[in-house]
Amino acid sequence: MDRLRQKMMSFMYGRYGNDQLGAMLTGVSVACLVVYLFIRIPFIYLAGVALLAYSVYRTFSKNTAKMAAQNQKFLTWRYRQAVKKDNAKKHWAQRKDYRFYKCPKCRQKVRVPRGRGKIAITCPKCTTEFIKKS
Which of 90, 73, 83 is nearest to 21 (CA)? Predict the structure, then answer.
């Protein structure tokens, strides 16, 4: 058992290994293959096999800088999606008390209280004034 571990460690030396992107690709590929068992669509099978092959390629790749950059890009995307989801929850919770508008110039979101009639809103980022109904 110890000898097998040594051989595996020497084989993986200098290779990238698994990361969050690889784990996600593996999970999606397994999900595609399971769905293919119930719905016999060849595209789903090919997508599952292709994703699994790419995940294995990433794991055994020696180009660690490229794989780390891909993983960082994936983590940044995942973080942005989490922030968008969190902001949507906050806006939904505040929908009775506030209205949200985007500045026509810089697209900054501005929160204004409801029930004030037509008001002049000043963007805190670019100081553009625009009139909206609150």
Answer: 73
